[in-house]
Amino acid sequence: MKFEADVQSLLTKATKHAQTVGPQKVDGLAQGGAPLLQWLAHLKGSEDTGVATQLLFAVRSAIIETASSIALGLARTSTFSLRAQIDLALSWLYFKDHRIEWERVQDTGDGYKLKSEVVRYLEDHYARYKIRFGLLKQCAKRHELEPYRLLSAHVHGQSAQVTPKLEHLDDAVVPAAIDACIEMQAAVAEYMGDVFLSCFGSKWASLPDDVLKSAQARLTAAQQKDVFS
What we know:
By secondary structure, the chain is mostly helical. The protein has one domain (4-227). It is built from eleven helices and no strands. The chain is globular and about 60 Å long.
């Protein structure tokens, strides 16, 4: 068979990565993604309207998908799943309150919202969203303030630095880039946590303890008054 040797080489390289460092890398990714998983569980219990609930499950699935790519050393593949986490989470924030629009998307595939449209919607319809997000951004710990922008550059191949450069199948396994992907998972989790907190900061008393303590640790006393009000 023409590609038997290529496929075997890919399998060997990915298997070696998975067996030697895969569990360690997935553990690192799980730690970075844990805050987002906590938010998802909280939102399912407190903000679920019964509309577009599957998007919350899809975000969790995208985290698992990212972990699968990380385990195999597929760095570029993981960027698609990382960006999907943001797309899906933002879409839920919009469609949970728009049953008719969501039904249209399900029936026709039309009407899905771009990130910019959802952010504008949040700014217009959630009181103090801009203030809260601005304060949280000032004290962000993530290495990439706007992870979606960088992830989109990779997904769309917006420059020579982020275009795929593969000669063989096993070139898709890039162990040297995996730690950057793990770091990006933490950035995505913090970014979406800030978005959620900017929407629901006034409901701080019901937030999970870890989520609340993490935010409080970043904010000054004065900033906390502005965010949790």
